[in-house]
Description:
CATH class: Mainly Alpha
Order of helices and strands: HHHHEEHEEH
Bound molecules: zinc ion
InterPro entries: ABATE, ABATE_dom_sf, Znf_CGNR
Strand content: 5-15%
Number of strands: 4
Largest sheet: 2 strands, antiparallel
Distance between the termini: 44 Å
Helix content: 40-55%
Number of domains: 1
Structural class: mainly alpha
CATH topology: Jann2411-like fold
Domain Zinc finger CGNR: 144-186
Protein name: RNA-binding protein
Amino acid sequence: xxxxxxxxxxxxxxxxxxxxxxxxxxxxxxxxxxxxxxxxxxxxxxxxxxxxxxxxxxxxxxxxxxxxxxxxxxxxxxxxxxxxxxxxxxxxxxxxxxxxxxxxxxxxxxxxxxxxxxxxxxxxxxxxxxxxxxxxxxxxxxxxxxxxxxxxxxxxxxxxxxxxxxxxxxxxxxxxxxxxxxxxxxxxxx
Length: 190
Ligand SMILES: [Zn+2]
Ligand SMILES: [Zn+2]
């Protein structure tokens, strides 16, 4: 394992959040927003075992969507280490991240929480994502944050492959689509 379990899990969650309204333009889902309503957000949080306060109202949903845009902007500048550090520091500060060790039924391994369970959802999510990003940067692994190489896809990826060789996202079957497109182009040319 490259990172601690909770760092990797949180970065996967961040990646999926950013991709929740992205993907290949020609994909089956189009630009559908999988966390566009409270039920979608519930499903997303359940997948990652997120616990703590839930308001289940429009304000909470809007805050999560704002966080999604913010994390997306961090991914977009990931090739620029200085800019990424600036944005991660700002997110740590804005979410008042304050780490403490905990474990609970949903996640029995010791791991960090970065906010009180009584803090608003987007604040807690933002703090944990900022800390996971800080971990990535400290480990010199920022290059694992990528944008899908398919020309018609704006999804992001968190590349956990050993040699950091992934270039396509997991959302739109982009690797296969590009392979087929390249094959067709070769057939045409030949
Ligand atoms: Zn926890
Ligand atoms: Zn893609």
